[in-house]
């Protein structure tokens, strides 16, 4: 049976600020989480020589088991973390060597959380998230920026978006 939601943690710190936000959200949503630091996922390769790394098995599990995928990233140089960008690049594998898997993303929920303690972002930050969800035929559930661990009401709002 498919579970509801998985959060993909994409920070260079497994126990840093973004991880703390994810922990708080997990208490509200009661969902699973994967930390990309636990996986060996290499840069996109046009020759697909890296097809046996951890990306495809992880993606298969996410697609089979979950209805919503929430990406959680710190703000690094005004944009998503490098770890998350590499992960997004690898989604191109699902448009080439694993098309059937890629098609199964259609209709799933896609959300995003950015984290930067005491820092703000521009609306443009969300552009690659919105466009990626659209390209993949996923439902954009929304996004939140967290700049303080006191932002629990914001997380509650986000939970409501995911549930509807
Ligand atoms: C490589 C790097 C780049 C960063 N770039 C920005 C930035 O562009 N704007 C900003 O406000 N904070 C920036 N920060 C600060 C982080 O966004 C902030 O400390 C965040 O809470 C760290 O989350 P983490 O513990 O999950 O890495 C940067 C930090 C690092 C390590």
UniProtKB/TrEMBL annotation:
Domain (NADPH-dependent FMN reductase-like) ranges: 6-120
Domain of life from the UniProt record: Bacteria
Any Pfam family matching the protein: FMN_red
GO molecular function: oxidoreductase activity
SUPFAM superfamilies recorded: Flavoproteins
InterPro entries: Flavoprotein-like_sf (IPR029039), FMN_Rdtase-like_dom (IPR005025), ISF_SsuE-like (IPR051796)
Keywords: Flavoprotein, FMN
Protein name in UniProt: Multimeric flavodoxin WrbA
């Amino acid at each position: 049976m498919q579970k509801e939601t998985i959060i993909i943690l994409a920070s260079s710190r497994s126990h840093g600020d973004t991880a703390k936000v994810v922990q708080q959200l997990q208490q509200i949503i009661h969902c699973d989480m994967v930390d990309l630091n636990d996986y060996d996922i290499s840069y996109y390769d046009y020759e697909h020589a890296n097809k046996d790394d951890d990306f495809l098995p992880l993606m298969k599990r996410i697609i089979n088991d979950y209805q919503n995928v929430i990406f959680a990233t710190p703000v690094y140089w005004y944009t998503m973390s490098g770890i998350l960008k590499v992960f997004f690049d690898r989604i191109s594998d699902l448009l080439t060597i694993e098309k059937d898997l890629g098609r199964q993303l259609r209709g799933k929920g896609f959300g995003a959380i950015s984290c930067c303690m005491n820092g703000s972002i521009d609306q443009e930050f969300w552009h690659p998230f919105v466009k990626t969800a659209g390209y993949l035929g996923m439902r954009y559930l929304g996004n939140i920026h967290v700049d303080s661990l006191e932002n629990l009401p914001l997380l509650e709002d986000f939970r409501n978006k995911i549930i509807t």
